[in-house]
């Protein structure tokens, strides 16, 4: 019995959400009095793999074969499932990232395992019951999900657990994987990453704006504020529907659900569908000229005022604060 | 070309979510059900790809007879026929097995789902069906083109996108951008009543998850309002009190 964590790399590097998944998996391994093994697929240098020891992995399986340099979820799922079998890992942990969402269900079927995705807390293990709290109803509720199968898969939401250091001696082993041709059905033609932007699902700070901004030409101050904070930008549904901003920025029930440490909502009234996607943010700040805006009911801090007056002042205040 | 679209019956997005029976069951009283909004996007793209006699679109739902109005809505939008696997949808694993079982000998070129259902938010079904059928699955796609042999797909990744091609059968889960949701017209609504809706029995599969209980998020304390001219006070609060900047 052991715990296996899949560590997703992007261009040979691990992101914070990966170290968070490792920290979380280590805590589960401790609950079970067992060791944590990590599996990495793709080109990652030993120095970067060793970083995983900082967060509690005692062994890293390194899969570095030509056919698996880039993500193919079918083949990656086969490799991770076979590693779980070889390591007798009955719990597999992943980040609930875009790739993780494609992988975890395939691994679950291969291992006949129950899958809790969008996990927000450590599992509760009590008298043979294994329960995981996960988001449901697009952030309007949580489902305490029992994983009743012997094998279990957990996909952890970003920013739900935090990165926890736990220095451990780590051994790196090459893991050889047989890749079936039939597992390589998808071929990556191109990867486009906006490197100057902070990825919204992982962001710790988010500045979001809505129809109150009146038009796409007024987003300069939102981007300036986000830039000063080191925050990602987001928007409400009417804004992305009107093509003022890309769909990838739309947060809410039919957009993406986020749980940053700070969410600043500017000119967004706070419709129930929008609140669903952002309600698990740790701190919410609302700036709106309508004191009756429903968003104020779920905010921690608020300013009643016109965004076009408040935001420039906020930018000045932030510049002064940063010195 | 034959396309299968998997649809889920979910509470309307404006629904206030509450639970009954000591928080173990979703309170369905007074709830309006709709076709899951992402599944509508998948369905709309399937209809676009098959328009003009280029193929057919079948919708499949796993659920009990109460779901039929939602299935008829999908037929009104433009699906050619529908199948309902007659069983309560226990979890994604169960639902995926049913869909795979139905699809395995039907020769669908493409299977589409929405990126996730807005009730359980799993994003599990597409990849699970893909695994049960041993075909490629591409999750959370933003664009889908198909030239009859090869599909070109844009998939969302953190901070960007990935363009992939796939030849042969595949399943994909659709997000915003794949198509504009179609609204049923009067002719669609009329014809939906007579389009075929087959009901098939479920197959059994081991239980791997069950929901023990639901919780609703803890309410926040009252909002602390800062006067509009004192933005530096807000920065101070975020720095010293909330400790987030």
From TrEMBL, chain A:
Q: Which residues form the Electron transfer flavoprotein alpha/beta-subunit N-terminal domain?
A: 3-188
UniProt keyword annotations, A-Z: Electron transport, Transport
Q: Which InterPro entries match?
A: DHS-like_NAD/FAD-binding_dom, ETF_a/b_N, ETF_a/FixB, ETF_asu_C, Rossmann-like_a/b/a_fold
Which Gene3D superfamilies does this UniProt record tie to the protein? HUPs, TPP-binding domain
- Give the protein family: Belongs to the ETF alpha-subunit/FixB family.
Protein's recorded name: Electron transfer flavoprotein subunit alpha/FixB family protein
Automatic annotation (TrEMBL), chain B:
| Record keyword Ligase present | no
Stretches that traverse the bilayer: none
Q: Which InterPro entries match?
A: ETF_a/b_N (IPR014730), ETF_b (IPR012255), ETF_beta_N (IPR033948), Rossmann-like_a/b/a_fold (IPR014729)
Give all residue intervals belonging to the Electron transfer flavoprotein alpha/beta-subunit N-terminal domain.
23-209
Keywords of this protein's UniProt record, alphabetized? Electron transport, Transport
Q: Does the keyword Electron transport apply?
A: yes
What family, per the record?
A: Belongs to the ETF beta-subunit/FixA family.
Protein name as annotated: Electron transfer flavoprotein subunit beta
Species: Pedobacter rhodius
């Amino acid at each position: 019995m052991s715990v296996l964590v899949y560590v997703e790399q992007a261009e040979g590097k691990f992101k914070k959400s990966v170290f968070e998944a490792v920290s979380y998996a280590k805590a589960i391994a401790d609950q079970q009095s067992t060791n944590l093994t990590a599996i990495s697929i793709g080109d990652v240098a030993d120095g970067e793999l060793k970083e995983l020891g900082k967060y509690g992995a005692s062994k890293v399986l390194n899969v570095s074969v030509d056919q698996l340099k880039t993500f193919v979820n079918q083949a990656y799922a086969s490799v991770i499932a076979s590693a779980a079998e070889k390591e007798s890992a009955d719990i597999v942990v992943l980040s609930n990232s875009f790739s993780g969402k494609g992988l975890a269900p395939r691994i679950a079927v291969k291992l006949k395992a129950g899958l809790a995705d969008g996990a927000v807390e450590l599992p509760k293990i009590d008298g043979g019951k294994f329960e995981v709290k996960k988001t449901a109803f697009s952030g309007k509720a949580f489902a305490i999900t029992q994983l009743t199968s012997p094998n279990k898969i957990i996909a952890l939401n970003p920013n739900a657990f935090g990165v926890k250091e736990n220095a451990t001696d780590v051994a790196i082993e090459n893991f050889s994987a047989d890749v079936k041709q039939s597992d390589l059905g998808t071929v990556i033609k191109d990867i486009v990453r906006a490197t100057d932007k902070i990825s919204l699902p992982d962001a710790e700070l988010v500045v979001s704006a809505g129809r109150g901004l009146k038009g796409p030409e007024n987003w300069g101050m939102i981007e300036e504020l986000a830039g000063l904070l080191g925050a990602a930008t987001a928007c409400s549904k009417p804004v992305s529907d009107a093509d003022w901003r890309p769909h990838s920025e739309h947060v809410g029930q039919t957009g993406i659900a986020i749980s940053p440490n700070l969410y600043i909502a500017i000119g967004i009234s706070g419709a129930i569908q929008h609140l669903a996607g952002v309600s698990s943010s740790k701190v919410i700040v609302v700036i709106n000229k309508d004191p009756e805006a429903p968003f104020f009911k779920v905010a921690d801090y608020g300013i009643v005022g016109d965004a076009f007056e408040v935001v420039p002042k906020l930018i000045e205040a932030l510049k002064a604060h940063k010195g | 070309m034959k396309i299968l679209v998997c649809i889920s019956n979910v509470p309307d997005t404006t629904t206030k979510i509450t639970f009954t029976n000591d928080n173990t069951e979703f309170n369905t009283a007074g709830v309006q059900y709709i076709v899951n909004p992402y599944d509508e996007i998948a369905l709309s793209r399937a209809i676009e790809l098959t328009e003009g006699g280029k193929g057919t679109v079948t919708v499949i739902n796993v659920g009990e007879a109460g779901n039929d109005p939602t299935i008829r809505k999908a037929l009104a939008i433009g699906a050619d026929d529908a199948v309902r696997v007659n069983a309560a949808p226990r979890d994604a694993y169960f639902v995926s097995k049913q869909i795979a079982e139905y699809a395995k000998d039907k020769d669908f070129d493409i299977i589409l789902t929405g990126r996730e259902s807005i009730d359980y938010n799993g994003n599990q079904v597409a990849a699970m069906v893909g695994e049960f059928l041993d075909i490629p699955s591409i999750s959370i796609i933003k664009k889908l083109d198909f030239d009859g042999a090869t599909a070109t797909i844009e998939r969302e990744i953190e901070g960007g996108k990935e363009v992939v091609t796939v030849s042969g059968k595949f399943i994909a889960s659709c997000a915003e951008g794949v198509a504009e949701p179609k609204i049923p017209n009067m002719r669609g609504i009329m014809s939906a009543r007579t389009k075929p809706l087959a009901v098939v029995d479920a197959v059994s599969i081991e239980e791997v998850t069950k929901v023990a209980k639901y919780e609703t998020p803890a309410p926040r304390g009252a909002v602390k309002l800062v006067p509009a001219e004192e933005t530096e006070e807000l920065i101070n609060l975020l720095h010293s009190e909330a400790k987030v900047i």
